[in-house]
Amino acid sequence: MKEEESNNKTQGRKLPVRRALLALMTVILMAVSVSVMTGEPVPGLTNEDCAKCHMTETRAVVEMGMAHKTAVSCLECHTGHRPMTANNVPNCSMCHAGEPHFEVGNCRSCHDPHMPLEIVLQGDLKDVCVSCHGTVGNDLVAFPSMHTELSCNYCHADRHGAIPDCGQCHAPHSAEMSQSDCMICHDAHTPTVLSYRGSAPSSLCGACHGEINRQLAANESRHRDIACIECHSQRHGLVPLCSDCHGMPHAKGMHERFPRCGDCHGIAHALNDGTL
After folding, report:
1. What would the pLDDT profile of 134-173 be if each residue is shown by its tens digit?
2. How far apart are alpha carbons 178 and 138 in whole angstroms?
3. Which residue of 91, 100, 223, 252 shows the fewest CB atoms closer than 10 Å?
């Protein structure tokens, strides 16, 4: 009898505690229910809470999240959680809109939102690429070449932003040429439009213009020591006037009688002494 009374007293003391716990759980469930109905995240959750379960995704965001790491938090994208939220994966258009690339759709075929610029290139891609790289797309159309017919990831195959070595497809003009030499004259997206970037050594010109290079090497005029791009500046194939450098060195009557300098002096790459 005494034991039964003791148990009743113990149960009586526990009852208020149980009621308090039940009330607390009720408040929490109500807060969660309100959160689900309003679409707002559960109060008090932080990125650190998400990382307790989603370690792989958190690590990807920390290492390669770009603006998804610095500009938004987990809860700004994932406004709810299953099973209380039917779909906790947000649409990219929630933030990304107003540009042609964002209208392509099926974003996740290329992008993982936790590391958005670690892009996977699958299939033959061109329209998707030029929706972002518009200048490149315009150049390929305006200056057609064999490159125009290729998909973008035929060349940029390994990863987004990878620049292949020209030698993977093209034999060099000479054995001495390197990848950096190719880029002095050629742009990959307008390869038939030759332009000089920086200093182009005459040896590169001689790789294609072998006979001219031999003529210059055998000639003892000052032209032999001048870089090709000093005369053929601005664009490939430009033939300057002799008067651009030499003015009109002879009497007016002689220039009128012999308007073409080469009639007396030969070609610029193999000058003679001017005797007829």
Report:
1. 999 999 999 999 999 999 999 998 788 888 999 999 999 8
2. 28
3. 252
